[in-house]
Amino acid sequence: MEDNSTNSTAGRVVRVHLACRAHLPIGSSLRVTGSHLWDPSESGSASDMSGARRVVAITGRDAYTAGDSGFAGGSLGIGAPNVVNEVEAAASGEGTMTPLGRDVASPENALIGVHDSHAPYYVSSVEMVTSPETYPIWRTRRPVVLVLTDKKSKRESVDDMDDDDDDDDNDSTVFHHNYRYLVVTPGSETDSAHGLGRFDSDSDMDDINNLLNKTKISSGSLSALNNFPLTSNDNGGAEFPVALWENPFLSEQADDDVMEDSTREMSTYSASGSSFGALTASVMGNSQRGKRQIVLEDLPYRTLNIDINTASFVRSENMDKDTLEFTDDGVIIDNWNGHNDVTFDAYRLREGLRKAYQEKATDIAADGDSDMVIDTQKPRKRIFIVCYHLPVIVSKDPETGEWMACWAESILARTANSAFVSSFDPHWVGTCTTSSPIENEADRQALRTLLASMDCTVLFFDEKVRDAHYKGFCKQVLWMVFHHVDLLDSRDPAFGMDFNATSTEKYTDGTLLDLESPWDQRQIVKWWEAFNLVNRTFAVEVTKMVQPDDVVWVHDYHLSLLPRMMSEEEAKIGSRLTKKIFYLHIPFPVSMIFKEIEFGATVLEGILHADIVGFHGFTDARHFLSSAKRILGLSHDSLEGGLLGVKYKGRTVVVTMSSVSVEPEMVDAVMDFPTTISGAAELKSKHSGRAIIAGVDVAQYLSGVSLKLATYGRLLQDSPSWRDKLVLVQRCLIPGARRLDEARTIREIRGIVSHIKSKYGDGVIDYEEVYGSSMPIDQRVALWRAADCLFSADVRGGLNMMPLEFVFAQKGKDSPGIVIASEFSGVFSILNGALRISPYDMKLTLATVDRALTMSKQEREGRHLRDIDFVSSSGSDKWIQGVLRDLFDQTESLGDGEIDSEENRSSEGKSVGAFLATAQEEQFTRLRSKSVISAYKSTSKRVIVLDFNGTIVLKQAVDSYLKRDSAGSTMDAPPTDVINSLRVLCADPKNTVFVVSGDNKENVEQAIGHIPGLGLAASNGSCFSPPLREGSSYRTWLALDLGVDWASVEGVALRIMAKFTARTNGSFIKRAHSSIGWSYYSCDPEFGSLQAKYLVIELERELAAFDVRFVNLKGIVEVIPRKLNKGIIVKKILRDVAARNNNAGVDFVLCMGDDISDEKMFTSVFSFVSEMNEDYSNVVPSPPVIQLSQGTLLASQPFLLEKPVLRCNNQNEQIYAFTVSVGKKESHASQYVDDARDVADLLVELSSGKRASFRRGTEDEMHLMQFS
């Protein structure tokens, strides 16, 4: 290891050599994982620079090319990846790969790329070599490259990627490098001459196979290796699987399994290495039931402790120095399967703690008998239930003035004998509505005290703010949009926006007709400002109350900005404290309607800051996912357990669907109330001799009451026999939330009721209006008990509990009643026994009502039985536990119900894979500009490489339907401040600055080609222009000769692309040097993506004879040479700079990019650092360079003369490498920023030394002042 000491460590490069003693079979080779960095070597293809696929098979036998032995081309035969598809797999950092010449439409031939959450620990590997003189000591051919990063900042705010607080400095002096060894044995056999195993008897082979039959290795990306069992050969030896991983602790891991003693003895490690075949973690035969699962992520790991100041190996106090072995140059020597090696100390210690932790958890579980096991020695987990309206009923005694409160009838209210309440510590936060006015601070304080005794925190708002928030934005904007009412519908008198809704005076005008057009939303700005203020107030107050590992459950659309604002508040105080759930209890609209509201994207982003987003039905979840895709460009994936996940800002937001029913105990009790029994009897007596159709609806247009009444009137008209045998008992609720809508709806309903009564008599309708949001439960249940049918005709509706309550209330009746449910209601997909209608189809509805009334007793009972089990067993308690279980399952929960907070804060209870994943995530930190500036100022041979689109230019997601920019024939230019910063950086003679783009050179030059001193690379680096001389206006363009007959490729590709262009509106063809692309960026995202998939299939078939590959990135399908990637040009730039000034080298690299094509830039940086002063004979030169345009080059930039990397003169100097992903996602980069605005901030700060403000003054913060 090389020492480059400095006071600042963030971004510093440490190059680590490793050595291992291993007696391997002939033909095998040893490799070592490269921590979170992929292999920085030249092995592998251009599209797989890491060579990972040459080390580990990917999926099944189809991963191997044809051949007698199953291997081809001097490698494992893994076909070079031919297609990179960002549409399906960009978020993971890798794409869907297909071997050249295969039919990609055939599922059995699909080849899934090697990349998952743990892949960097066991797929990436670095080659190790030996020689006859040093065997069996193996040593890394080139060093493993590690980059030290800042530890997790306590203030990693979404508004600020930097933090100047001194207490956040990285004060740790030891870097823990975790690694594993693996052996690649392509068809190798044991050889007695080397003393390897000597499995030369049938009994020995039986013992081996006995072990292997009981041990199966599984992993997300390596599971397919199970097609390669350990088998005997003709010489009596054993053939080994392709990849073997050391596991000296296999016998310990098997103690609790059914492995026999003799097998355990075979699995122990021999210090001499003579028992290599024993029991590495290898992949065996086809899966069989009863086999023990060994997950590769959980295999033992080694740890090398590195002093970040001296870059030297750190010896702990308990190490026996006499037993340590080192190479001549001071590299510690490990032993293959050496369980006593000091590098396993950290693993042994952590495993001991984990086992003790598990034993304790097992003891606790053994003592419990509930579904949710709680450690009584620890405080119960706290859950904050945040809803705008607290589920309480508050009243004031008119005589004494004393305030009283009780729990309301709500799924959010505390219920008796609740397992949820007994298992968790719930606390409610919200506002309250009172029957008497709150007159002064004394009233407010009395309510705070009263509700605090019920575990509630009440918030109070000024009447103006409260009305603008609730009656204004919530009810006049969001409610209508969420119920699929678009702005054109708003022209209907029933939906005219009541702009006086927030006034305490009687409204007189202010409907939508007062506006110049239905799209003029100027008058709702004040409501939006109040909406922001209320959500921000909730966020501040809740954040004050929460503690680490608390759960915050936000309910309904009134607080849809709260998850984001809470994240911002938590960032201000130091860390992400809570897990967040957002649950919507009303419908979610189709994306076309949701896009109409001016603040729709902000509302979506607010919701997506939750960890779980819940809906009562799949239709609503589907609409939400569609809006996320078409408005924000976010795609979703399926997760384990039937959940869906949306990638947002580097996190997976889980989308869940679950239904809730009534509280069975409460309804059961109410059914026995005297008032309920007498009420039902009175209704039956009042309407004696008539069948009763019941209906209870809110008096609003979308409840469909008018359609119901019109259908009922038509039934009486068409079927006179029903006039004396039928009555509709209709109750209309008037909550006062949408006064204009309610007034007009009531007026219309009264007119229809009056008409029907005048025509058919008073006995056919029993109509009443009830002021308030609900009827008393005893009156409702009385109606249900008396009724023969419940008729619901919702035009748009969320989850309505009344049909569920009706089904439950039919228990014990001789002939259960039937539910008629609208297909537009929330219960449509819940009640399987209901009769389903479209309220707009009057003919079908009439037939359905008649069927319900004449249905046989047997069919009624059958339909009731379909639903009663769900309705009786799915109360709020079970629903709450189900949602929490979804949350905990996605956050590595302990048991079914409780996240163990201590487990989440420490590593004791985590598996090896989870621990390593956490360690990796902790190393992948947000870039802090002060660390970059510190390194920048202390260095003098600097290289800055920037991607263009998405990095220095903010681009919208390809999947977004409405794009504010276009990707046509011209490029967008970076902001003026970024251009000015690039000018300053390029003017510094210590800097070499390049912008690398996938676009053609004409567009790149038009956008930024005028900047003196700036180097350009276009077409993914296939052509490039050295930095422009000061005062010169003409650029010299060079190109890499990649050995492809491009004219022939274009001839074939253009014909196919032209056909797809004609079929796909908005698409066009883009031609560049060594690249031809088909852009669907401006098309409908779903149709364009679909067409792109078929285009790739056809291109691959027709271009199979050419050495090309296909890239689907940023809405463009490109055909490029197989060898081409951005990493080639980046390495060439670095080599050129290093060779200047008598091989002065490079001491600072800043490389930033935003998508999968930029990953090769990151790996090329590490490859360059690895090859410096190392292994010159194996360095692969860059492709030859040809000149495309006239001009001369600076003498200091000999791009036309490729030179091998020489020994640089700065080998003892500090080297800093900042590889930065724009957007937090799986990446080979060492750090990340959020988006192009953070890149702009950094460039401005680097050039001027001043803090930039591209992200200052968020929209909601500007609105807060309006009501302050």
Main attributes of the structure:
single chain, 1268 residues, alpha/beta, elongated, disordered N terminus, disordered C terminus, transferase, alpha,alpha-trehalose-phosphate synthase (UDP-forming) activity, EC 2.4.1.15, HAD-like_sf, trehalose-phosphatase activity
Structural topology:
Blueprint: E1 13-16, E2 19-21, E3 29-33, E4 83-85, H1 86-89, H2 119-122, E5 125-129, E6 137-140, E7 144-147, E8 174-179, E9 181-184, H3 202-214, E10 215-218, E11 231-232, E12 238-239, E13 243-245, H4 250-253, H5 261-266, E14 281-282, E15 292-295, E16 302-307, E17 312-313, E18 333-335, H6 345-367, E19 382-389, E20 392-396, E21 403-407, H7 419-423, E22 425-431, H8 441-452, E23 456-458, H9 463-482, H10 525-545, E24 551-555, H11 562-573, E25 579-583, H12 591-594, H13 600-607, E26 612-615, H14 618-632, E27 636-638, E28 644-648, E29 651-657, H15 664-671, H16 674-686, E30 691-698, H17 705-718, E31 726-734, H18 739-760, E32 765-771, H19 777-786, E33 789-791, H20 801-809, E34 818-822, E35 835-837, H21 842-854, H22 857-873, H23 876-889, H24 901-905, H25 912-923, E36 925-926, H26 929-937, E37 942-947, H27 976-987, E38 991-996, H28 1001-1008, E39 1014-1018, E40 1023-1025, E41 1038-1040, H29 1046-1063, E42 1068-1072, E43 1075-1079, H30 1085-1102, E44 1108-1113, E45 1116-1121, H31 1126-1143, E46 1148-1153, H32 1159-1171, E47 1185-1187, E48 1216-1222, ...
Parallel strand pairs: 2-18, 4-44, 10-15, 19-22, 19-24, 22-23, 24-25, 25-26, 26-29, 30-31, 30-33, 31-32, 33-34, 34-35, 36-49, 37-38, 37-46, 38-39, 46-48, 48-49
Antiparallel strand pairs: 1-7, 2-6, 3-5, 3-9, 5-6, 8-16, 9-13, 11-12, 13-14, 16-17, 20-21, 27-28, 28-29, 39-40, 40-41, 41-47, 42-43, 43-45, 44-45
Helix pairs in contact: 9-10, 10-11, 13-14, 16-19, 17-18, 17-21, 20-22, 27-33, 29-30, 31-32
